[in-house]
User: Fold these one by one.
Assistant:
Number 1:
Amino acid sequence: MKIEPSTALPVRHERELIGLQLETDPEAGFLLWSRRMDAMLQASDYDGCCQLLAEMKQFLASGRGQPAPAFLRVVRSAQGRVFAYLGEFQEAIAAFEQGVALARHSDDPEHLALALGDLGNAHTLAGNIEQATACHEQALVVLRSSGNTSALATTLVNLGSNYRDGGRTDQARQCFEEAVNLAGVRLDTRAMAMTNLAVLLHKQEQWDEAERAYRESLRLFAELGDERSLAQATGHLGAMYLDSGRPEDAIPLLLQDLKMLQVLGDLIGQAQTLNNLGMAAGQLGELDEAARLYESALLLQQGLGDGRNALVTTTNLAILHLRSGKNQVAGVLLVQASILAGDLGDQERLVQIEQLRAQLG
């Protein structure tokens, strides 16, 4: 008897059905388990994922069923994604490497490409850019002959991000542009590719092209109804206007971004946007307003324990007070910034702080 998963069932009862199915028809049980795991991963229910993985580990150890290698790859992929979520990147890499080894013995090249993509993403999170690039390059070769346009576009975006982080900006741009222009690409994948292209053009100070790409990503995210990504892209465009010396254009976008982030409850994002609004006010010569905005951002960052961004805001506030001639206040802030930078091991920021302290006289 084959039991189909039901979203109407309580999770505990569904797990009981999975256990029963594994005992009576392991092949169908593996399918049911895979579907439930996929649903939990999509919902970011990592506690539920851990329970399912523990139950499957116990079942496999009992020797009562012999799953196909394709299913074991699914298990390893799930393990890797949970480890990555927990920040245990070496464990994630080990799980994904096992998934790649299993996929190499399958007759489905797309399984291999997906496994390589998982491994590449884990290496990216761990900061292993060369290894990540190699994985995504291998996946790309496999997918070019597969006909899976969606997977190809996603891999191009991941590889482009690796190229960008590795300083290979021309190759990164080629990847992002190919992903954007592929026929039949899902709208969310196209939006992701367009955003990455916009960020790259922004960093290269190609302002007109970056603006067009950001505007298109905004349109795509609005069409998708993806409020979080829409807020992020709105903030990116506002920051681009700041970097290109257009604070009057940045402020309306940053205020819009702040409202969206407040609805989403994203405190980290709110603090970053307040910091950018402070920069915009400072560029316009509204120094008191800039100080108020920086202080609001800093209050949020300190409450969140966000030391790295608090360091940026503290430094910005110190520079503002130096500019206003309030050297004593600036000096106190620079001491605080120096302590934060030391705790974080940020040598570049420490050098900047010492240069600023030399201006105190």
Note: DSSP finds 18 helices and no strands in the chain.
Number 2:
Amino acid sequence: MTGRQRLTLTLVADGDLLMRDRQRQSNVLESDLFIRGSVLRGALADAWIHVYGTGGAFRDVFTGMTRFLGGYPRVPTRDDDGRLRRTMTVPRTVFADKNSREVIDFAVRDDTDTAGYSRRSGLASFDREQNSASLVDEPLSYARQRIGTLQDGTGLIGSEDDGKLFTEVVVASGAQFEVDIEGDPTSLDQLRGLLNDPGVERFLTIGRSRTILGMTRVAEMDVSPVEQDEPIKRSRHALYFATDAILLNERLEPVVPDGRWLEVLADLEPGTVAAVDQGNLAERRIAGWSAVHRGPKPVDIAVERGSVLSFNCEDGDALQSIAESLSSGVGWRTAEGFGVVHLDHPIHDANWHVHYEQQG
């Protein structure tokens, strides 16, 4: 990973966004508050083709070692000073006291009794400098309704029935997202050149129904070095799944991560990892739509973003090996942003606030 850089983009929605897998059996679609890496890569590749075609550096940028990690909305800071801060998925180890509303992250605690607490979900705002985190319940989306129509005479394109009423919960226009792309300096410079082209904005669309939704533009760009996670010196540690991770064994069967999985991943001796807690793992199905084949993609089973795997390990060299094994992503489809996993993410030690929580 030496020499790799991270390109961070601030995307502004100039229209409503609907980011969701196709669900042929439902007439209600609720947008994710997350731009998946595969969605980001597809949007940028489509814009590149419209501006430059498929020649030149297209293959190097979009089928090489570049990782499109996706990203989350930005929300106002706790100080309400006009600044915006990036959000992330609340770890599944975060719970709130049912009476006092105190928020606690149980990821690396010895006491894991959550009786009297309720698990929190959604988005969190995290300030590394202040070591503080806040639960977010901003009104970033709203419901809209429309009448569905077939997009062609065969019914192969789209999943709507003619005349059927659809409810879509979309991300409201004006929302800002911060997304990351990792790659070599040359590939990232080529992407910056694309995004600096004045004509690219009319082709940069994200999500579903892109003829009427999904218009975005790049407001900011920043480049920084890629840094590896540093394990904290203690006996209890945690893996935080920042994005969905598609983990398969040699028979292509879904894998639930455990201690042995982690030891194999980092090439460690059996027994190096102990006291593994899988109770804060969840799974989700990853679906998609192939514009080429005009049909649904195969469904993948993934460890859901926000999941946490806690474990004991006091071997410093082993922890460094774990951090190195996570640095380029784990599992399948890592170029599309799947499998971003952090060791000892600092949010697990943050002081939690409820400033953003919507009242009433």
Note: The first strand starts at residue 5 and ends at 13.
Number 3:
Amino acid sequence: MTITVLNLISTSGTSTFSFTVSPFNTPPTTEPQGSFSLQTGSNGGKTIDGCTGVKLTTVTTGQLTSPSFVMANTLINTVAQGNLTFKLATAIFISDTIEIKFPGEMSLSITGIIMASGNRAVQSYSVVGSVLSLVIGTGTQLFLANTVITLLISSVGNPPSTATTGTFSISTKRSNYGIDSLVQSLTYTATSGVLSASLSASVLEIGATSVYTLQVTFTNKVTSAGVLYITFPNVFTMASGTFSCTSNASISTTCNYASSSRTMTVTSISTSGVNSGTTVSLTINGITNPISVGSFQSLSLASTYNSSSDYVDTLSSGLSLTLTTRLLPASNVAISASASTVYTLTTMTITITNQNPLAISSLLYIVIPS
């Protein structure tokens, strides 16, 4: 295409001038373009100045907007359909490419893709590592600027924990040159599974020091750096500190309790990690039972994939015990009378060494033999 500009201004010697051409479309992709050539000439057609090889200022991609990614099943470590949506800034056509780089925490075993918008076919697709590339096929609707694209992508693997993933990268291309790209941050967060567990204690009397044993079955994998958090209900009044504990899957388990949060942090629960479906037996020494008779609220559990605080499994019910009255040994009670003669009015003195603390307004029940 050649543009001829008539009636240029008159100049004497060297000078700088500019003019605009409007409307003028920039190239449709970032593919390097040919160069401009310019020349000035006289009314008689004689060349005065000439120049070739002038390049247009670098062209950048448009910006994809309104991105979202939703999994049909959000449970960690599961495989499900993923729905990806975004809005075009620039039109795309048959044989153009959409390229999606998934976060490294997710896996791809794709068996099919549907373009839910525009009734368009997917001509072909390929997966290399975490990058999915698909070629747009025929359809009844053009994908013009501002069109919302929705892709239904089969068999996407959820991350191994509830940690927020890295970002998605999305771009549209023609002949491998950029058209639009995603600038906004798009991430994904999966949901945790559910632990299965049981609780028992060596002593069930209130206020007694007991050994608690937890049988924990992990639904999802935990690495050797994984952590198990045990949160006790507020009826427990233990002081902060390190408790002696053992695991049948490790030789160096540690249990640190923080009274401010009533949470025990169990590290090195397994020497080589815990696979899905594995049951670990954890024994904790020195737990002081609450001083309330009956059942207490359930303990809560949460496991992490590694040393981070991103959960893989949780449990908040079913871990309770029913506590009974703590019997005083006979040596803790003494009863005496001021007189020892039969059938004589006397003063009886009862001395008790209690094992559990008594609050103000506590009661004492005495059953006197008949």
Note: The CA atoms of residues 295 and 322 lie 4 Å apart.
